[in-house]
């Protein structure tokens, strides 16, 4: 639908430079954690978190230059999975990576300046994408659907007034989250540069990457960490 009415929606799709592949693993991770690795061919990071008993998501990400040097574009799925498993062997603790259409992709940043056209309306990833590093894509889609259902119920058969009301209610919320997601995505686009920082500076850079947490808020949440950060910075 977005493609059919791209001009009417003011649709845009841009792709980030980093490449990522979405694997699974039998390794159990209690919470979202990250592993960053420097290798002879370049730098990698992995986002890993539990999604079911005995199963975790394991997203491997790398920059464009490393992707090319490693030769991932020429590899079969099994070879690509094997190399990633080797790179993150310690983080996996002997557990294998599991493929499920684990192709290498670049993240699409989708946005539409107008959310509806005639009787048509966009929600979820068709309307806006939020980088996987903030984990809000599914949440935003479900909340869009709930808000649309509620607005349609309030306006009865008057679709012409319901759709603008839906957009007016949801747009400020979505824009705030997508702005944070885009800032987080920009941080990951340069994650290799951040890896050169001292540990406390790296952690601070990571925690504040989306702009949703500043140092004063963090001081209340984690005073010992902020004290260490400020002490090490001198």
Key descriptive features of the protein:
234 residues; alpha+beta; 5-stranded antiparallel β-sheet; 3 domains; D-Amino Acid Oxidase, Chain A, domain 2; globular; 10 helices; two-stranded antiparallel sheet; FAD/NAD(P)-binding domain
Give a verbal description of the structure.
By secondary structure, the protein is α+β, with helices and mostly antiparallel strands. It folds into three domains: 6-13 and 110-189, 3-Layer(bba) Sandwich (FAD/NAD(P)-binding domain); 17-98, D-Amino Acid Oxidase, Chain A, domain 2 (2-Layer Sandwich), CATH 3.30.9.20; 197-233, no CATH class. The chain contains ten helices and nine strands. The chain has helices at residues 6-9, 64-70, 77-87, 89-92, 137-155, 159-189, 191-194, 199-207, 215-221, 223-233, and strands at 11-15, 19-25, 33-39, 42-52, 55-62, 97-98, 108-112, 116-117, 120-121. Strands 3-4-5-2-6 form a five-stranded antiparallel sheet. A two-stranded antiparallel sheet has the order 1-7. A two-stranded antiparallel sheet has the order 8-9. Helix 5 (137-155) runs antiparallel to helix 6 (159-189) and helix 9 packs across helix 10. The radius of gyration is 21 Å and the shape is globular. The model has no long low-confidence stretch (mean pLDDT 95).
């Amino acid at each position: 639908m977005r493609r059919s009415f791209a001009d009417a929606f003011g649709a845009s799709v841009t792709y980030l430079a980093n490449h990522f592949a979405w694997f699974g693993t039998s390794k159990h991770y209690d919470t979202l954690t990250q592993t960053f690795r420097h290798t002879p061919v370049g730098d990698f990071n992995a986002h890993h978190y539990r999604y079911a008993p005995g199963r975790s998501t394991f997203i491997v990400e790398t920059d464009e230059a490393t992707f090319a040097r490693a030769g991932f574009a020429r590899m079969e799925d099994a070879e690509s999975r094997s190399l990633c498993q080797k790179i993150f062997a310690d983080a996996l603790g002997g557990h294998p990576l599991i493929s499920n259409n684990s192709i290498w992709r670049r993240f699409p940043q989708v946005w539409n300046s107008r959310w509806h056209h005639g009787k048509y309306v966009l929600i979820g990833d068709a309307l806006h994408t939020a980088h996987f590093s903030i984990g809000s894509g599914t949440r935003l889609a479900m909340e869009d659907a709930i808000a649309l259902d509620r607005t349609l119920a309030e306006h009865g058969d008057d679709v012409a007034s319901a759709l603008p009301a839906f957009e007016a209610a949801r747009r400020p919320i979505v824009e705030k989250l997508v702005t944070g997601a885009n800032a987080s995505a920009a941080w990951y686009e340069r994650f290799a540069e951040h890896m050169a920082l001292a540990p406390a500076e790296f952690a601070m850079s990571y925690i504040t990457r989306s702009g949703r947490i500043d140092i004063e808020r963090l001081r209340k949440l984690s005073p010992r960490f902020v004290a260490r950060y400020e002490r090490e910075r001198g």
